[in-house]
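User: quick one, sequence for these tokens?
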């Protein structure tokens, strides 16, 4: 078996490669009848088969072979198998689930034979066959029922299993590579990536993978709402040979998106547009020379490595494209992989060295909010989504979701809630952190996220083998991971134990090639001010551990559950907020990148009154033995209410500069328009 990856790398370093064009419209030219589609094999099948193009590899292989021939003759380097809809999910419409594997094997054999014939003719131009994997007619991120947004027509496991069967057939039939295309719902693609990965592991062999998304319109988003960069962030863990765009738009409209992708992705870039935008009759009439000129322009500007055609393109288009790109140089661009952690919801979240501290909204947690818990237990998921929205409007950059409650079916609650969140665009923008102490709940959550989320958490509590098993699984879903400083003996409390446990986990993750940028350490924020002497150094030790971990593992991030710190002052929000905020002030300086907080309810450090601040910092920084006593005594004199809750409008008396500055620091939008208007005068 030749190494196809090496072959593709070498070919694309020499020239632009050409895919084939549309299959469907070529099939239409044959004006096949119901009897043609049925053939002998399905003469008495229960369902009409006309229009089921995928079945033709079994019933009219001559037609499919003729089309492959035409594209190879026109100059395609890579042709696609006729398997766009050959999955059990899509074939259910025709009651042909039982022959899906055979379809994929037969289709791959047909394409492979045609390729081998043309490679023999001219060995200097090797031809390769790509197993085509379509998006399916059922989608994991959107509900087909208007009145039931949490409903899904299909489960992640069904999609994954259907793709697994297709992938197995395509590989058994001899596909040189796999091409998952026309992706409009990233979660379907993520299920496909899991299927590919599992099949590769079972076979002990991988083939190159090409991934191609569809940008539906000028919004620059997928149908399921992701921006291009969010899409890319969600699937890059597949380590594809190429990432690209096909369908929906013509080359002219696709250009800005190809430019964006070519700047972003260290992979090769593919592009196979439709023959322009459809006319009033839904037909494509961009001529071969126009498509070819546009694609040659992309090649000229070093934007693409692989080009071809989608809907409306013909062998004449491919011939023109092949001719036009033959005179362009290979792209020969290598985009560096930047050392930034990246996560995504519908939009990307990139953590750069200069990024601000990130807020992870804590209130969508049944153990962390009485209100949220009450809503979930009552089944009022809509109102629970409003809690999420509150966190986002309060500044949350990531949303922590936890359903660990004895009375709940936590897997189901997690699934329903995440399905609903996906339909609230203001919330779905940001990445989700799935929070649970049960692995099955974490995995249920991963199966709902089309973006790149974060698992909260894994640890060495159940030993190294279990830790690695979970880490590998997270890798397959392409999520980040919070690693808690916890081992077989229990929770780390001292600086040394926190660092040791995190570094032990780090080495294990490294042994399985876990992306370092996807690792988030949590060295345990534990309650201080409890009156117990051993607890006095908890905050200081957390900060010290943070400093060391950031030094030892510069690509990793550090996070923590900030509100834990002030548990012993429950009931006195003013003191809790002051403690949390003073802690954050110092922990961020020690390198803390993000924290689970009540977004929208954080006190501003500078606003804490000097007496309170001094007493709070005495406790946080463990500055004197009687620190807790003094804070407890002082706490009794401060209002029990948190700061943000009472509207203090004294700041409105300041100058316009001071007012705008106050609004920016506190994230208040109420007066900003009037203040800005005044400032502009
Ligand atoms: N590390 C990681 N994950 C975590 C934690 C951590 N997840 C859970 C928790 N700790 C972080 N989340 C919260 C959420 C809420 C509160 C504390 C931590 C909290 N809630 C109020 C209370 O209990 O007093 C509830 C108030 C209400 O009901 O309105 O303090 O450390 N990786």
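Assistant:
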């Amino acid at each position: 078996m030749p190494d196809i990856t090496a072959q593709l790398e070498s070919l694309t370093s020499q020239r632009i490669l050409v895919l084939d064009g549309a299959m469907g419209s070529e099939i239409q030219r044959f004006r096949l009848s119901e009897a043609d589609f049925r053939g002998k094999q399905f003469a008495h099948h229960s369902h009409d088969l006309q229009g089921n193009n995928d079945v033709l590899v079994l019933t009219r292989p001559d037609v499919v072979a003729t089309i492959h021939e035409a594209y190879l003759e026109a100059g395609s380097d890579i042709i696609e198998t006729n398997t766009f809809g050959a999955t059990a999910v899509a074939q259910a419409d025709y009651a042909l689930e039982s022959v899906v594997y055979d379809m994929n094997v037969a289709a791959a054999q047909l394409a492979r034979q045609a390729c081998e014939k043309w490679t023999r003719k001219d060995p200097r131009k090797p031809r390769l066959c790509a197993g085509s994997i379509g998006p399916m007619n059922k989608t994991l991120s959107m509900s087909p029922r208007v009145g039931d947004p949490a409903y899904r027509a299909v489960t992640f496991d069904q999609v994954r299993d259907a793709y697994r069967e297709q992938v197995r057939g395509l590989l058994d039939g001899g596909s040189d590579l796999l091409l998952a295309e026309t992706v409009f719902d990233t979660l379907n693609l993520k299920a496909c990536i899991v299927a590919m990965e599992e099949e590769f592991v079972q076979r002990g062999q991988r083939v190159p993978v090409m991934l191609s998304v569809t940008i539906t319109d000028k919004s620059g988003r997928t149908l399921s709402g992701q921006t291009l960069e969010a899409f890319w962030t969600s699937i890059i863990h597949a380590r594809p040979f190429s990432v690209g765009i096909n369908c929906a738009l013509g080359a002219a409209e696709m250009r800005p998106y190809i430019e964006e992708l070519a700047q972003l992705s260290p992979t090769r870039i593919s592009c196979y547009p439709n023959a322009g935008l459809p006319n009033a009759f839904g037909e494509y009439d961009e001529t071969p020379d126009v498509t070819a000129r546009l694609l040659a322009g992309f090649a000229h500007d070093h934007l693409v490595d692989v080009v071809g055609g989608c809907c409306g393109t013909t062998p004449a288009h491919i011939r023109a494209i092949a001719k036009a790109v033959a005179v362009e140089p290979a792209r020969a661009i290598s985009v560096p992989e930047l050392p930034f952690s990246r996560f995504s919801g519908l939009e990307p979240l990139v953590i750069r060295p200069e990024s601000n501290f990130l807020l992870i909204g804590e209130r969508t947690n049944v153990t962390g909010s009485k209100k949220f818990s009450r809503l979930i237990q009552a089944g009022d998921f809509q109102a629970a989504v409003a809690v999420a929205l509150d966190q986002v409007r309060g500044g949350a950059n990531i949303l922590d979701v936890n359903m660990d409650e004895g009375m709940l079916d936590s897997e189901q609650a997690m699934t329903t809630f995440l399905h609903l969140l996906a339909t609230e665009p203001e919330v779905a923008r940001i990445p989700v952190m799935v929070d649970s102490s049960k692995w099955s709940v974490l995995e249920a959550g991963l199966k709902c996220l089309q973006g790149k989320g974060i698992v909260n958490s894994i640890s060495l509590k159940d030993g190294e083998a279990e830790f690695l098993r979970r880490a590998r699984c997270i890798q397959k879903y392409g999520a980040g991971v919070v690693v808690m400083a916890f081992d077989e003996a229990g929770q780390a409390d001292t600086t040394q134990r926190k660092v040791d446990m995190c570094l032990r986990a780090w080495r294990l993750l490294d042994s399985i090639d876990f992306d370092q940028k996807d690792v988030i350490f949590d060295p345990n924020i534990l309650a201080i001010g409890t009156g117990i002497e051993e607890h006095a150094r908890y905050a200081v030790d957390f900060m010290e551990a943070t400093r060391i971990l950031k030094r030892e593992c510069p690509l990793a991030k550090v996070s923590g559950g900030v509100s834990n710190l002030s548990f012993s002052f429950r009931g006195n929000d003013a003191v809790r907020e002051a403690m949390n905020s003073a802690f954050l002030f110092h922990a961020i300086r020690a390198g803390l990148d993000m924290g689970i907080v009540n977004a929208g309810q954080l006190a501003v450090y500078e606003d804490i009154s000097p007496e309170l601040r001094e007493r709070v910092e005495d406790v946080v920084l463990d500055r004197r033995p009687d620190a807790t006593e003094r804070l407890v005594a002082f706490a009794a004199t401060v209002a029990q209410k948190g700061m943000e809750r009472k509207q203090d409008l004294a700041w409105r008396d300041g100058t316009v500069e001071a007012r705008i500055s106050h609004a920016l620091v506190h994230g208040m939008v109420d007066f900003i328009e009037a203040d800005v208007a005044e400032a502009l005068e």
